[in-house]
Amino acid sequence: MVQNLSQKLHCLQVKSSPPTRFLEEKFISLLRSCRTSHHLLHLHSQLTTHGLIHNAYVTPTLITTCSLLNKMPHARKLFDKMPQPNTATWNAMFRGYLHLECHLQVVVLFGEMNRAGAVPNCFTLPMVVKCCGKVNAVREGEEVHCVVVKMGFMSNPFVGTSLIDMYSSRGSVGDAYKVFGEMHQRNVVAWTAVIRAYISCGDMVSARRFFDLAPARDVVLWNTVVSGYIESGDMVAARKLFDKMPGRDAMSWNTMLNGYASNGDIELFEKMFEEMPERNVFSWNGLIGGYARNGLFSQVLESFKWMLVEGGDVLPNDATLVTVLSACSRLGALDMGKWVHLYAESIGYKGNLFVGNALIDMYAKCGVIGNALDVFNSIDRKDVFTWNTIINGMAMHGHAADALSLFDRMKNAVVKPDEVTFVGVLSACVHMGLVKDGFSFFQSMFDNYSIVPQIQHYGCMVDLLGRAGLLDQAVNFVRKMPMKPDAVIWAALLGACRIYKNVEIAELALQRLIELEPKNPANFVMLSNIYKDLGRWQDVARLKIAMRDTGFRKLPGCSVIEVDDSVVEFYSLDERHPETENIFRALRGLTVILRSYGYVPNLVDVAQGTVMGEVLQTTTLTRYPTYTRQSCRDCGSKIRKCHICRKKISNSFKLFHG
DNA sequence: CTAGGGTTAG
């Protein structure tokens, strides 16, 4: 009874005349735990009724909460109504914009701060300096530098370091060093910043000198210099320093892992992963992504499965899923891709834009454009990647009309088309033979979107003219190109010459192709096929000798197929599989059945060596596939099996089990 | 209310 009464009294006291400080603290803690915009609006109105909406202590926290909930416009409205915001409130605005990466807003707002006569402090300046660097605001950056000096903030390590970073990001190492020299106290972060400045301009010698001079070195500084050596391509120096490190953290190991991967040293790459004392999600992504970067897509899937089994607490994240899905696309591993789709949703990546875009691409490349569309439609906030992927996917599937209508929809959405969009649009025109429309799209790239056409777009145009049979126009177009035509351009022309049996232009194209890539036997095969079509057997023989003299043999095209849980690669008449006999027996059986239904095989292309892989090689050229084949370590040849030194480069024929 | 280092898509 007594306790109850005192509680009531206490409540009354608080309600009638609460000490302001108490209320302020209460609201600050409520705002910090606020997680929804609904709750935020509620608190906002409460603050208004308590007359605390322009409070010096509460308002900064309110603004911070707005920014965390993606409500900066709301914060801005409130902020603009304040008669005289204090520095902490200004800072909350800067931090909010910085958090959302609205760097330009920060620079603009700082101008307003000066005009309003408000005074920045040591928290304001690093944020503003950083943003000047981000948006490349050179003049503003120098003005802020002057403010720093005038207000005596050069002694503040945060301010000084931010200035070093700014000058470093615009490539002015000299200015970065000058700031470093003028700093009153230099901690290890400042040393790291100046060393980073030398690394980013490629001066590893100076970077190393400063590293050796530094009074203290922590693990971040060590890692910075190791990755500097990697960036400069010096894996040996990176390794030497790595071995000398007094304490390595997970990032040290991952840095080396990625270094070996980007230098194509698969052996050391794998060894590095095996030796790692601890593996976080970045380590696994390093392994998976390293295989992907080196074109070893089966190993991508294999190591992903290994991660699921052996990763322990480490779960894949969006980066993992995207890499694995793109490997599925490259391999045509649809079953695996579908599984990854379900798995991604089960671990909470249903709404992830990165994953969604990768799924669209995977379904499109695996031939199920319907599923690609389903994923596309399920994404509500589509970005330029989403649109480009579906447009290119549609074009690739021959749904050119759909690709073009999607392009129309894209224009109505707020997403601005880019150069990749136009590759899809133009290749849709190629498929439909829309020469006129193609040219008008090509023209509108620059006129309406200020996109300067790249060589890919010129390639599409050559393809467009060539496939429409307008070979002379195509040659003229190539001659008038503003850049030097590359092999893809000439190959497109050569391909068109085969369709229309134009020997004269074919010979011209081949001549250019031989100059550009003397090692690629596919070019000879193409011309040889044209001669064959025309029955010019003497020329075929002559070309065969010329081809032999180059010393290179054409790589047989290969196919990949998903079997159970694995991806298997095979060539025409391949006999490497342990069950070759059974496979061929089954095939013979199938042929008998097919023939009994009246099927007559077309052996002409097979006889000419135009197996699937070659068709792919010639028809996908204009799409500039990013497919990279492993290069031979000894002779640099970009082939799967080096025909010069006869070494097998990647273990591409490999079954794996889940 | 403060800084420096890693991965992913067309």
Written description of the protein model:
The protein is mainly α and 658 residues long. Strands 1-2 form a two-stranded antiparallel ribbon. A hairpin with a 2-residue loop joins strand 1 and strand 2. Helix 6 runs parallel beside helix 8, helix 20 runs parallel beside helix 22 and helix 22 runs parallel beside helix 24. The longest helix has 17 residues. The radius of gyration is 32 Å and the shape is globular. The chain starts with a helix and ends in a 39-residue tail after the last helix. The C terminus is likely disordered. The structure holds one DNA strand of 10 nucleotides.
Q: Give unreliable regions as ranges.
A: 8-17, 604-658
What sort of overall outline do the alpha carbons produce when their principal axes are compared?
globular
**Structural class per helix/strand content?**
mainly alpha
Distance between the termini: 69 Å
Largest sheet: 2 strands, antiparallel
Number of DSSP strand runs: 2
What amount of the residues lies in strands?
under 5%
- Give me the side-by-side strand order of the main sheet: 1-2
What is the average of the pLDDT values?
A: 86
Report the radius of gyration as a whole number of Å. 32 Å
* Individual helix count: 36
Considering DSSP H and I runs of 4 or more, what fraction of the residues is helical?
Answer: 55-70%
Keywords: Repeat
GO biological process, one term: RNA modification
Protein name: Pentatricopeptide repeat protein
Organism: Crotalaria pallida
